[in-house]
Amino acid sequence: MSAQSSEEDLPPFPTPEISSITLENKHSAQIHYTYYPPSPSKATHPNPFSQTLLVFLNGLVLPRSSWDASISKFLQARINARLPYPALLSYDRYGQGDSDPDPDDAEPPPCHGHDVMSATHVLRQFLLQMWKEHLDISSPTQFPNIIFICNSIGCAIARLFAQTYPGTVSGLLFLDSIMANSDFVSLWPDPDAHNFDPHTLPPGVSERDVRETREKYRRIFHPSVPNSEGLSRRNLATLLPSSSSPALEGPGGSGPYLTVVGHDWETFADQSFTGSLNTPRALTMTYANPAWQKYNEGLTRITSEGKAIGPIVAIGCGHFVQRDGPGFVAGEMGALLDRAVNRGEQVREGDGS
């Protein structure tokens, strides 16, 4: 068979359904989503992922479109390898991207209209309705085999979902999770603390640098700061006080398969310096990066022994891993999928480029 005919025999790239839905208890607001159907099953080759749903959970800044490149690379890799793939679903939460604001929010954005637990309940209702609408009636299940691919605060929502609805989540890919128990100001030394010693600061960093960094983080990242989505973080540390607990329960009683990914320290430090924060690289490398690494190490303990991989580093990626490294994300998606559904060893697809 020639290479050309081999290429022509490849299955077609699936056409996404780009649409919106109203939830049964919030009829006045639209949630916009992008849904890719699973690869078709054949009598001789059934799709082992026909009842699996990969769900993408956004951070606060980037909408569902930020996953498009990762999804495209993942699907193309599966198609080129003639491997089956599951359904994939990305969406904009209320008040984000193309979706309407949460109709239950009392104030216009920016506001603290609803919290992360509310977003978790909304996610469950959204998934129930989407699964019911797209369910293959020939092989129905009560609920899909869920695998979450998430970034930043999306990781907190995924944890709360798995914690609130035990037995529903088979796999989790955390891409630079938010430090849910941090106020993001205490990361840095406090020049006004009685035990502050300016001589402990890294070379080239002044007390003024520390004060300015603390103030910028307080103004932008402190949980008391409202956002245009209306998603409040004020009680996030209460909801998730520890990175290493509680333990999550997946289908069958054991923990879900988990991959924990952290940002590249150098890339994050560079982006923090050259971006609007203008945080000195030495400050990020000395204080923020080690704290984030410790948090990620804790995350590997929220599942059963042998079910977690990481923390691994997304080389060349800052906090928005799916934006900086869509090929890396696609490879980790495939590896997690095969672990969670086939119960196999991790095998990375492609070179992550």
From TrEMBL:
Keywords, comma-separated and alphabetical: Hydrolase
Keyword Hydrolase listed: yes
GO molecular function: hydrolase activity
Domain AB hydrolase-1, residue spans: 54-330
Region feature Disordered, mapped onto this chain: 94-114
Origin: domain of life: Eukaryota
SUPFAM superfamilies: alpha/beta-Hydrolases
Entry coiled-coil feature ranges: none
Name listed for the protein in its UniProt record: Alpha/Beta hydrolase protein
Biological source species: Clohesyomyces aquaticus
Phylogenetic classification of the source organism: Eukaryota, Fungi, Dikarya, Ascomycota, Pezizomycotina
